[in-house]
Amino acid sequence: MGSRRDYYKDPDAPKPNSLKPGGAALVVDEAGRVLMQRRGDSGNWSLPGGVMEVGETLGECVVRETREETGVEIEVCGLLGIYTDPEHVIAYEDGEVRQEFAVVYFGRVVGGEIRVSEESTEVRFVALEELEGMPVHPTVRLRLGHYRERREGPWLG
User: Fold this and answer.
1) Angle at alpha carbon of residue 18, lines to 62 and 25, rounded to 5°
2) pLDDT digits over 111-149, tens only?
3) I need a surface site. Which of 28, 58, 124, 134 has the fewest CB within 10 A?
4) Tell me: the pLDDT tens digits for 76-112?
5) Are the C-beta atoms of 146 and 138 separated by less than 8 Å?
6) What sections of 100-137 are H helices per DSSP?
7) Are 76 and 109 in contact (CB under 8 A)?
8) For 27, what's the count of Cα atoms within 13 Å in the CB-facing half-sphere?
9) What CA–CA distances, in Å, run from 13 to 9, 19, 50, 94?
10) Nearest to 4, CA basis, from 32, 40, 56, 54
11) What would the DSSP string read from start to end of 26-72?
């Protein structure tokens, strides 16, 4: 797996040269815990997700990425929000510097079994309180905060 570095509200961040639509899933179990993966590239805990491919909808992308990264089969059942903050950029070792563009869907488990992928070192459902003491990028914390708030409508940012 290639390395990446996230910059957030950093005046020294490199200038973005790419914008790709991506999606993520916020999946909650019956105990209210959130499906999270510990990223192999950054060590941060994150929601499963990735970049949309030609020929699929963004919802299909989120279902595919969740399956590939966690082993869990989901169906999309709502929208948490749209996250397009130009102050969040991700620099990749190949020179790509991508501006954030993520649509975060709510997902419901319909099958599968939790497993670690090539992109993660650990995958499990985690209580929101436990996540407070774990390494989580500020933009993922923002999304988890929006879930915790039980917002009436999606975040549009």
Assistant:
1) 15
2) 999 999 998 999 999 999 999 999 999 999 999 999 999
3) 134
4) 999 999 999 999 999 999 999 999 999 999 999 999 9
5) no
6) 128-131
7) no
8) 31
9) 8, 16, 22, 16
10) 40
11) EEB-TTSPEEEEEETTT--EE-SEEE--TTS-HHHHHHHHHHHHHSE
